[in-house]
Amino acid sequence: MSRRLLALACLGALPSLASAESLTVYSAGPGALIETLAADFRAETGIPVNVFQSTTGQVMARLEAEQANPLADVVISASWESAEALHDQGLLHEYRSPLAENVPDALKSDHYVAQGISALALVWNRQSETPPPTDWSGLTDSVYRDQVTMPDPAQSGAAFELVTGLLTALGEEATWSLIEALDDNGMIVPGPNARALNPVLQGARSVVFGAVDYIALGQQAEGESIEVIFPESGTVIAPRPMMILASTQRPEAAERFVDFVLSEQGQARVAERFLMPARSDIPGQRPGLEELTLIEVDSAAMNAQRDTILTRFRDSVNR
Amino acid sequence: MAGLSLRGPRLDGARWAMLATIVALLLLVGLPLNYVVLQAIFPEVTRGSLSAPFSRFLPMLADPELLGLLGNTLRLGVAVVLASAFLAVPLGALRALTRVPGGATWDLLFLIPFMIPPYIAALSWVLTLQPRGYAQQLIGVEASGLLFSFTGIVLVMVLNVFPVVYFAVSRTLMAVGGRYAAAGRVSGAGPWRALWRITLPLSTPGIAASLLLVFALTIEEFGTPATLGAQAGYPVLVTGIHERFADWPIDIPGAAVLSLLLVMLAMAAFYLQHWLVTRRSFVSQSGKPALAERIELGPWRWPVVGFFSLVALISVGVPLLAVLATASTGTLSGGLSWDNLSGRHFEALLANRGGALQALSTSLGLATGAALLTGVLGALVGYLVVRARVRGKGLLDLLSLLPNTLPGIVVAVGLILAWNQSWWPIQVYNTGAMLLLAYACLLLPYPVRYASAAFRQMGENLEAAGRVCGAGFFTTFRRILLPALAPSLLVAMLLVFAIASRELVASLMVAPAGMSTVSTFVFGQFEQGSPGVGMAMSTVAILTTTFLLVALTVLSRKRLPIAG
What we know:
With 319 residues, chain A is an alpha/beta fold. Helices cover 41% and strands 18% of the residues of chain A. Chain B has a single domain (11-289, 322-563), classed as MetI-like fold, CATH 1.10.3720.
């Protein structure tokens, strides 16, 4: 008898089939942002949104595995190059939102547009015994011996952008000798973004070299004793592309969703999560594009040698 | 199926069960596996094209990095098996053969490591042992050198998986029971001689099966090598597979090739175990009531309790306390101090941020479903493999074990490829049923292993007696075999429940849009830099599953079946 109850209980846990009337959005972090956006969108348009929220890698793996019968309508990734790649495969629906007018040209195309922008920064634990760092190269100093972590560029699209930024600003030779000097100074490369930040939060390490800023800013707002420092010599940004799949059955609803994210209300939600809004006319809650020194990266050229760069990086830190 | 011939007069029932089981296994395991193989051979299969076959195979096999990954995986698997046996065989033997004060409480305690997700356990050890970690804050000790090394990875994994061996050893020794040992002692053997010459050898199938499971679990496990391995510089096959899945550009064919290598490793282990347990008969359960006769420990009681307590403290206490500490302190940088004590992470959960409560009920429901499904199937497969005289039953056995060696992510991709086709009459894809399929597929080996080990020890006289009395296959199965099997099968189902309620890797891939489970919720919180909320959810989930298992035991008015 109890077994029947259990069986009923687990049947109850299976959800009903996804409604044909709803929109399906695959989004790479922050989860709270996409959930609020989905709820707001539903309140405004009456269209329910099914959200799959994960990392960029998981979202892309899922798109790849689903190619025989794609389900997502809208995809938001944390890596600009992933949008370029999907576009090259002809998988994206062409749409230029009228609300994208105030999005800088570099952050939109006919097939995708930025939802928000993050930048790469140094994150320093205020309680550590080290002085606050000011620039990337300062971390090779012996006061930072065994005190630095860095996200793995192979696992974090943002950290890869940073490496390409350094290659652009410093040149090849100086970049790799910087990485090698950091490695000599005991830098660890423990994994994707959150895993590089965790040791600094607890104080096992003092500085993250190349953290994604909005995560750290959010934690600072929650009371963690950390400081987000944008290096003097400049940094790189990681815009988060938003796109509609060509396979969508509901292009109009998908376009409305993109419009909604680019609306003042949607962009204000983006700002709440400490990302820079894609629209330059919406105020952010953190340093914006004009306040940062930016390194201009030829990302197409850099992405073409992605494997070479990652191999060189691996060789530099695993000597 | 005309070639099948089963023993016994009532062929129809048995044949029907055989057919149903084969179909279920093919659907559950064969189908996704088939798509993984297709993916490895035809890189373009996700696009519906069979072009360029084998174009990924040779370049990958020629990669020198591969040999390193393979070697690391093997070394890790063997080390964890040896260390688990070293720790858990004495524990299980003591529990089964002597009167350890506390009795069944230890069984319950040692079930908890299984309910702590491996990546959470690894993370708690990092939070505890890294410089300025909890251990240093409390007692001034840090051990990051040990933790981020091969030894560290092995230790953390052993603490996670040793319960498999503990339960198998204690259950099997209890089943083998005092009768044979007593017979030995009547014939003049001392207690040690009886243990070494009779009880332990008769328990070989159960122990070997559990060690094989540990090996399979270890080479398949992702959480611990991913958390500790990067810093320790110890990549394994599974992390290689995940790299190909999670790093842009995604390389599913490459991952499929690596997965097939893992499968081959597991097959080798399978044959080794098979060879061990089929060389001779291990029938020791005749259905006659056995009086469990346990040794009184006398003055040895306290050292033994000390040993049990130490293991419980390290495997359960430390991770749980670290999880609890992270969940109930306001900030990580604030450390362990009274002003930093805060309930805000739990409040965030209660406020249902990110659908925490739905995630919990989804996970519990799916875990229950997976336990029931795999329990029934496991009993059937175990029976058919051990008893039925059917051609190809080895294949059945292999098929039911294989998922244990397939990384969760590969099963998930196989399931997506198989079910996300528009020609299926019922759309299973993008529903919660996908999670149920994934869990049932991944966890089927547990009930199968436990059931076939139990059948191996069960005399055939019982069934023969049933048939003589006129019972058909189903009656015999239900009235005689299942009750005799129940203790082992229940343990396996508890394990399935515990693992399914926290499975991460496949859940991330196949959870339908709009649905989250405990583990995807926790993972999301970590990814987005809210370790506190993630740990609060882990606390709630671990306590809930533990509480449910205890309640189940109390309600059924029996002692935990694992207590014998």
